[in-house]
Amino acid sequence: MGNLFEKELEKKTIFKDRNAISQHYFPKELPFREKQIQEMTKILTPSLQGKKPDNLFLYGKVGTGKTTVTFHVIKELEEFVKKNQAKVTTNYVNCRNHNSKYKVLIKAIKKFFPEENFIGYSAGFIQEKFIDYCNKENHIILVLDEIDKVKDLDELVYSLSRSNDEIQNGSISIIGISNNLMFKERLDPRTKSSLCEKEMVFPPYNAEELRAILKARVELAFIPGSVSDSAVNLAAAIAAQESGDARTAVMLLMRAGEIAENTNARKVSDVEVNKAKKKVEEDIIFNMVSTLPEQQQLVLKAIALLSMSTKGIKKITGQEEIGVLYSGEIYDKYKQLASGIKESVVSSRWYRQYITELEMYGLILTSASGPGIKGQTKLIKLGFDAEKINSIIDSQLGK
Questions:
Q1: Is residue 252 domain-shared with residue 319, that is, in the same domain?
Q2: In terms of Cα–Cα distance, which of 204, 106, 111, 91 is closest to 150?
Q3: pLDDT tens-digit map of 70-120
Q4: Considering 143, 166, 201, which residue would you say is the last residue of a domain?
Q5: Domain residue limits at 389
């Protein structure tokens, strides 16, 4: 019969390098982000001159190149440091996995003292170790990806910034990355002034830019002639219309390629891209929901639960609006959920801010109450399947 894996590896494939069409691939060339690369390079250069670079805050929607550009510039910096023996060290922390001041400090300090175990030591003690390291003329550039996930971020940024007051010969600088365009508005004014010394906004890609990005990826990932120009154009158009997200465009072509292989098609066409669209949408919803802060997840869960348990609203005329909810009932449900897991309840002002952001991400639809509805309120409707949204959030909240 032969070995199962031997048979699988003997199958013909349209992929030349599947990794090159993965969303985790970091390309050598980053078209349409030259301005951001140049600006970031300029901001970090003082570290090579023995000076403290400004803190930098990057924000923009998912898939706009924030992390990719940061890795690209940091890699160039590290190559220069190695070649010229400069005393600059970079460190990357994903704050989705390390979501508190203490966890960030523990993760970051390991790079500088790999032989020591700091678990159990106080945050103050770990901070002193940072200061000791920097006082040996070391400049640390700490990249905090998904920085909005840190629950006590104000304390983290303030303590790291204040550490520089005690450092005589080095420095600690922060590059904060967030998918949340409105995130900095939640920061304490003191934190905002120190973290956001320099800011960069990454705009969504348009269809032409996405098409160029995809064409470059296709050359790396697929056997020549196995992807039609029409399929590339369609994937770019879908991604541009929905979000301007390069990850979405790349995922569409990867899934389309897999569908073509599974059906023994020799070429990826519009047919495969359209079939891939539904699967990719599910992946995008998961990624979008899983990157939300816990409080926003609770608000979205409240909307999902109410959408599952109620038919909607009834107007004075007797007409029903299926799936539509009142803002006030959602806030009440959210408070119940937050209290149930002993989470602090945000004010109605911040709740309204969360609703605005959820709409901006395309997860919900909102409208003002009109004729046939008593009083003035905001009407809210979930943009995706309620059971699916609820299931994703439960998995994120550890249920």
A1: no
A2: 106
A3: 999 999 999 999 999 999 999 999 998 899 999 999 999 999 999 899 999
A4: 201
A5: 294-396
Please provide the distance, in angstroms rounded to a whole number, between the alpha carbons at the two ends of the chain: 44
| Phi then psi dihedrals of residue 67, to 5 deg | -70, -40
Instruction: Enter the tokens of residue 383.
Output: 């943009």
DSSP-assigned beta bridge partners for residue 321: 313
- 257-276 burial, b for 16+ CB within 10 Å, e for fewer? bbbbbeeebeebbebbbbeb
Give the CATH number, domain containing residue 355: 1.10.10.10
- Residue identified by tokens 């905001």 is 378
DSSP 125-147: HHHHHHHHHHTTT-EEEEEEETG
* Same domain for 99 and 73: yes
Give the position of tokens 């070429």: 267
Q: What is the pTM of this model?
A: 0.82
Contact (Cβ atoms closer than 8 angstroms) between residue 234 and residue 207: no
Query: Alpha carbon 166 to chain centroid distance?
Result: 33
Rounded distance between C-alpha atoms, residue 27 and residue 7, angstroms: 31
Tally of CB atoms within 10 A around 376: 8
* Ramachandran assignment for 398, one of left (phi > 0), alpha (psi -120 to 50 degrees), beta (any other): left
- Note the pLDDT tens digit of each residue in 328-337: 999 999 999 9
Question: Encoding tokens for residue 256?
Answer: 């389309």
Distances in whole angstroms, Cα of residue 341 to Cα of each of 111, 208, 362, 399: 35, 46, 27, 11
Of 239, 274, 290, which residue sits at a domain end?
290
